[in-house]
Amino acid sequence: MSLCWLDAGTIRRVLDMRGCIEVIERVMRALARGEARVPLRQILPVQPGLLFGCMPGVLNEPAVFGAKLLAVQAGMQPSHRGIVVLFDTHSGEPVALLDATELTALRTAAASAVATRVLAGEEAGTLAILGTGEQARRHIEALAIVRGIREVRLWGRHPARVAALAAEQSSRLALKVIAVHSAREAVRGADLVCTTTAAPLPILEGAWLEPGTHVNLVGASTAAAREADDEVVRRARFFVDERSSALPQAGELQHAIASGAVTTDCILGEIGAVLEGLVAGRTRASDITVYKSLGLAAQDLAAGAAAHARALALGVGEMLR
Question: DSSP string covering 16-68, please?
Fold first, then answer.
């Protein structure tokens, strides 16, 4: 048995953001057609502040199965560390191991870009990013691919980090990226909003959102955490990556249902169903749309398989025997 190991640098070499966006769109469509199986992820507490996650899945195309094994530790950089393992569906042999930190960062932002492409207004171009971590960086890059971004407003709890990231991204992407002093200031007048923080309590209020805004809720990944208040959920046409995982594990959704602000019917559909034309996304210019991202094993496996195939074609990656 031999395994191909792809570290973070190799993944960046073989799979860029634009390519990953197309991979994620294909797999979300496949999920809507019943061509991917993703049971509910398992999250086990190890000790205070440290979680162990296991996310298995099976894809029909590409023919692969496997899992992401992940340690999530609040306050650490990076906060997500682990591996993705891919198996061949014919032989049953494990064929590849990939750095989960890089793959997660890449596919999460790509998924938000897919949702933005299908839900946001065509002319949307003012982007508010709440957060200053790796996902903030990746989301600026990803959303600039699917929309003509004119201005990025960046907010975080640490002003020095905000200023540094704004300068870095302005230079790297040739975009107007400005540091602001409050989340409300960032969101005011923005037509695209991404929350990419580790905040356990809301940093985004629904009262701030103007008609026509599209929101990607990304950072909160357990039922106990939420980045947006109930009003965000109540006002929006609300979409998820996968309904059966969102209902028990999306904190914003859980809290809004428990408070009576909404019912489970507020989930209008999965992004794959919108892409496939099975569910209406944005119906008018004034709609506020929300995509709640929890992340799916199908996304990790599809992105991992694409990176592995490209690595084999280029003859890169380390073979472990």
Answer: -HHHHHHHHHHHHHHHHTT-EE-PPPEEEEEETTEEEEEEEEEETTTTEEEEE
* CB-CB contact of 114 with 21 (8 Å): yes
How far is it, in rounded angstroms, from Cα 309 to Cα 320? Answer: 16
Give just the sign of the alpha carbon dihedral 96, 97, 102, 108: positive
C-alpha to C-alpha distances, 124 to 120, 152, 213, 283, nearest whole angstrom: 7, 12, 8, 15
The rounded distance, in Å, linking the Cα atoms of 317 and 68 is: 19
Query: What's the sign of the alpha-carbon dihedral 8, 298, 240, 15?
Result: positive
Tell me which residues of the chain have a pLDDT lower than 50. none
pLDDT in tens, 107-163: 999 999 999 999 999 999 999 999 999 999 999 999 999 999 999 999 999 999 999
Handedness of CA 29, 30, 33, 38 (dihedral sign): negative
Length, in residues, of the chain: 321
- Hey, what domains does the chain have and what are their CATH numbers? 3-104+297-320 (3.30.1780.10), 111-292 (3.40.50.720)
Contact yes or no for 252/234 (Cβ under 8 A): no
237 is written with which tokens? 């046409």
Q: What is the rounded distance in angstroms from the CA atom of residue 263 to the CA atom of residue 261?
A: 7
How much is the mean pLDDT over the chain? Answer: 95
What pLDDT score does 1 carry?
Answer: 65
pTM: 0.95
The CA distance from 156 to 179, in Å, is 9
Q: Name the one residue in this structure whose structure tokens are 């109540």.
A: 234
| Residue 123: predicted pLDDT | 96
